[in-house]
Amino acid sequence: RIAGNQVLVQQRKDTAYFLPEYLEIDGTLNPTTRQYGIYKAVLYQASLKIKGDFAPPDFSVWKVKPDNVLWDEAIIAFYVADLRATPSTLSITFNNKEFPFQPGSRLNGYSSGIYAHIPGSVAPDNKLEFATTVELNGSKSLDLMPVGRHTMVNLKSIWPDPKFHGAYLPQTHTVTDEGFTANWSISYYGRSQPQQWNNTEDSKGLASYATAQSFFGISLLAPIDHYRLVERSIKYGILFLITVFTTFFIFETRSTIKLHPVQYTLVGAALVIFFLLLLALSELLSFGLAYTIGGIACTLLISAYSIFALKSKHRAAIIALTLALIYAMLYIILQLQDYALLLGTILIFAMLAAAMFTTRNIKWE
Asked: What number of other Cβ atoms are within 10 A of residue 119's Cβ?
């Protein structure tokens, strides 16, 4: 700008952002469980080996000359949601030189993270390779974002119950009782972020609303604890009531025995108290042992009462055998995960069909 005999030059400093051409993450998760009173939580220690490379920065799209680029102010930044659990000092190797990480991401909209100044390491036509190892402590899940033009992720752990979630599912994965391995290969075409932008452009960049749609990762599912097992067993409580009450009613209609509603109520109360016993004992003992003790106790109680109510040891033995079979079947159902609902529904349907068939000739009037 010219004013009189003076030439006034106005300078403006902008920031350009570049994402890696190639990004590879090899991670190992070492899980542990922590006990908080009667509750358990799944924690993990993650070791993430991160490496990749950048293409030589191209400023021609903004018509910026290489001489106007402040190469010595270049930084490399990582967004990490929570670094409070990072146990060690972090550094990065960039073009065979090591630089320490500083706290803060230096990315707009992301206050948490790390960055490193890399003076003298970035210049036109330079080879831009980086590598670092990040140690993290976390709980439940690990989420990543595919910021490379091509992103490769390989995760493994000894945890046998992973859940894969997010915008990208693994291309290959193996899950066994000894743990899991999972591999992702992701192209940048599936994300909404551009490969490069600057702070003056009307670009999504790394806006949180855009990146939230690109996260993917795994969750370490907690094994089914005794509270959820008890909750699942309660759902099949109707199975006990229908079976035992139907058996009592058949004995009553086919003999001279007359049972009072109070007797049905007492037997029903004994059936219901099994679930309370199961819950109380499972807080102190293993679920299997608690289930066995509760089942035996309620079976003996109802069978002993049936001797007097039904006036027959033979009929009481049938009641005991029926209860033993139901308790055994329910325990098998509770140990299943994928087919528990299907098998339980089939069992209830079969019991109902048996009750209808057995009482088909009874004159209800």
From this structure: 12
Nearest to 331 by CA among 229, 243, 245: 229
Task: Name the residue type at position 82.
Answer: D
Pairing of strands 16-18, 196-198: antiparallel
Cβ(214)–Cβ(191) below 8 Å: yes
pLDDT at 157: 93
- Answer positive or negative: Cα dihedral of 168, 169, 172, 174: positive
Strand residue runs (E) in the chain: 2-3, 6-7, 16-18, 22-36, 39-54, 75-79, 91-94, 97-100, 102-103, 113-117, 128-139, 141-144, 150-157, 162-166, 172-176, 179-187, 196-198, 216-220
Q: What angle do CA 224, 153, 120 make, to 5 degrees?
A: 135
- Convert the pLDDT of each residue in 55-109 to its tens digit: 888 888 888 888 888 888 899 999 888 777 677 788 999 988 999 999 888 887 7
For residue 204, count other CB atoms closer than 10 A to its CB.
Answer: 14
Distance of CA 232 to the CA centre of its chain: 20
Query: C-alpha distances in angstroms, 259 versus 86, 229, 265, 318, 347?
Result: 68, 34, 11, 17, 28
Collapsed DSSP state (helix, strand, coil) of residue 256? coil
- Residues 169 and 147: beta-carbon distance below 8 Å: no
